[in-house]
Amino acid sequence: MTKVLYFVDRLRHGGIQQLILEILKHYDREKMQIDLLIFNDGETYPLEEEIRKLGINIYKIDGWIKSPFSYIKQKKVLDKFYNEHHDYKVVHLHSSSKNFLVLKEAKKYGIPMRIAHSHNIGFQTKNKAKILIGNMLKNELIKNATDYFACSSLAGEWLFGKKKDIKIIHNAIDYERFKFNNDIRIETRKKLKFSDEDIVIGHVGRFTNQKNHIFLIDIFYELYLKNKNYKLLLVGIGEKENEIKNKIETLGIQENVLFIGFSDEVNKIMQAMDIFVFPSLYEGLGLVLIEAQASGLPCITSKYVVPNEVKINENFKFIELNNNPKEWANEIMNIPIKRKSIDNEIIEAGYLIDDMVKNLQEYYLKQKERK
User: Fold this and answer.
1) Both 9 and 129 in a single domain?
2) Same structural domain for residues 199 and 302?
3) Domain tally for the chain?
4) Does one domain contain both 183 and 164?
5) Structural domain span for residue 213
6) ∠278-284-287 over CA atoms, to 5°?
7) CATH code for position 25
8) What gap in Å lies between CA 22 and CA 193, rounded to an integer?
9) Rounded Cα gap, residues 14 and 202, in angstroms
10) Strand 275-278's sheet: what is its strand order?
11) What are 129-176's pLDDT values in tens digits?
């Protein structure tokens, strides 16, 4: 049986973690074993328990990067880990260059397939020093990897430059869970106390700078001024939550904004929405946009900084971020509010989780051909 080790820095819920969860739910356990390695950041996240319930081994070790000096400790703990667990044939790194040592130590212990996987087009920090270090470490990541994956062409170019052997792996979903269901829509809207007249603008994402919630609130305020039946539904948690709530209270629109918090029923909540708005500052792909389209929702997102590959059907619009909130609001008001099945489009685009997992498994098994 082929043993595969996945690495993600922590199990705070996000697009990468959600993708890993879906892979772990669907892979063939008769052909391989997938374990998970994470660093201890001092927190315990709900996703850890969810993954453990699947019977997945989670190795949680010290080594969280807090400063450049942390790399000395990280190297030691990784060396100890691989000394005890060096029977893996594949190490798949779902992280950027800052965790290059995961692959470097795997190389030291002779693990034949070492995959670096780019899931973004920017570092999740505004700290210029950290960005500089991250860019410097890209060469180390490339040097110690044997294979290069990316969720989009933009994500591949950002992390690996102009390398020609980048494999694009579209982040896939369990389509049947997200497919539009009118009974679930009625039930969920009733539970969330939305009326038939309400027009629900939806967003799913962590409350971070990247997701650009403050701009989203400005957009929604323009919609609210035109029609008080617009409601904003926010799913997520994060460090910017208080700032966002203060903005909403300052504008006096708190009665029209609903915070859901963390939810493992995003598939049901999306059924209650009417339009999905996602003005991110950057995205490697934007998995929730795939989920939203699977739910039949019309989608509006940021042009140029969200990859074109995310668009599956025509009920989807890109808008430049330098357009003002009023222009975004006008586009939202003009988009047709109607659900559309995308059965054929999602299959052709390659976003079905079963197909993705099958392709990954076949790729991992290639390591048997390597010395």
Assistant:
1) yes
2) yes
3) 2
4) no
5) 175-349
6) 55
7) 3.40.50.2000
8) 30
9) 17
10) 257-261, 230-235, 199-204, 275-278, 299-302, 316-319
11) 888 888 898 999 999 999 999 999 999 999 999 877 999 998 899 999
